[in-house]
Design a protein that fits this description.
2 copies of one chain form a homodimer. The first copy, chain A, is α+β, with helices and mostly antiparallel strands. Chain A is built from 2 helices and 4 strands, in the order βαββαβ. Helix content of chain A is 32%, strand content 36%. In chain A, helix 1 packs antiparallel against helix 2.
């Protein structure tokens, strides 16, 4: 299993509409991914007592079965996905692609 | 649902034993968390064609029901958890605490 993630760093003067990101942008992105995307989550980073201030505002994680199918979906729907970004942010995100190498449920 | 994560950035000259991190350190951490931890995953970040180099080497995500119980487990087992870190890395990680605000299965 793979995981594509996008994380938006805390940025002085940066604009970020978390509501739009979590309820419109990411669900639209996930629809374009079809069955290749088995699960998604949107995380809102919180300050915790005694810990350093959060590095990121929020992030989305999409669990995917195939990197090739993910690339094909981006090629096909990239205009709609990337064109939607200015509607909620002007912050440059950190985009990552990972393999889930270890996992367990309790 | 909350998610505690720890991510190790790519660092010139940094030492990181991914095998130890994924098969010893994180599973030990998760055992200390008990039933409060409903799931965990270890991600290995990969280069992808045409994308910028990964920012992080690897990360672990732990999904938790209670922040209070997480804090109590850290207070009780912190010595064992933090004392284990030099066995696999000398890189300072980014630790984050988030709330899962949106999620879906396909």
């Amino acid at each position: 299993m793979f995981c594509a993630s996008v994380a938006y760093p805390v940025q002085e003067g940066g604009r970020f509409d978390f509501e739009y990101f979590s309820t419109h942008h990411i669900p639209m992105f996930v629809r374009f991914l079809g069955n290749n995307c088995v699960r998604y989550e949107v995380h809102k980073y919180l300050a915790s007592p005694g810990a350093p201030a959060p590095t990121y505002l929020g992030a989305a994680y999409m669990w995917l079965q195939s990197g090739e199918a993910f690339g094909a979906a981006l090629a096909q729907h990239g205009d709609a996905i990337y064109g939607d970004i200015p509607r909620f942010t002007d912050i440059e995100p950190v985009r990552q692609w990972s393999e889930v190498v270890e996992a367990g449920d309790n």
